[in-house]
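Lecture notes, unit on protein representations.

Consider one protein chain, 176 amino acids long.
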Amino acid sequence: MGTSIQRIRPCLWFDSEAEEAARFYIKVFQSVLSSASEAAPSKILEMSYYTPANAVMAGKAVGSVLTVTFLLSGQEHMGINGGPVFQFSEAISLCVHCKTQEEVDGFWYGLSDGGDPSAQQCGWLKDKFGVSWQIIPDVLLELMSDANPEKAQRVVQAMLSMKKLDISLLKHAYEG
């Protein structure tokens, strides 16, 4: 049998930047997770190209990249160069769960490079391609789901006041 296919694989529609975006994301993930011993691979798996038959229909050059399939921390994603018809919005985002503040900072600054982190809050940012990301420390979910509703509410209020999430400030809010 052949290799197994990931059951759910996000497909990101770009005008013509799918390969550039994939390489950018791979570079960020490799940079942030380079010292993590359990880091799963981030790499390009395969690319397909416009043929004479489909290039005319899409208004793309023959031989230009049609799709790129890539891994980010071991999870498959696909980018397609489908033209300017569709744009990204905050209606969907990619969540990156982080173990440490160093990871939060690395993903936040890496993915927002050339993008717009200032217009977002609560750990959200928009990268230079318009894709929305949530950079979330794992501890946030633990603190927000605490059985003590007062502690959990303090954490939520602290999170709402932040753009890039700060683990020490979230823990401080939790403690009161």
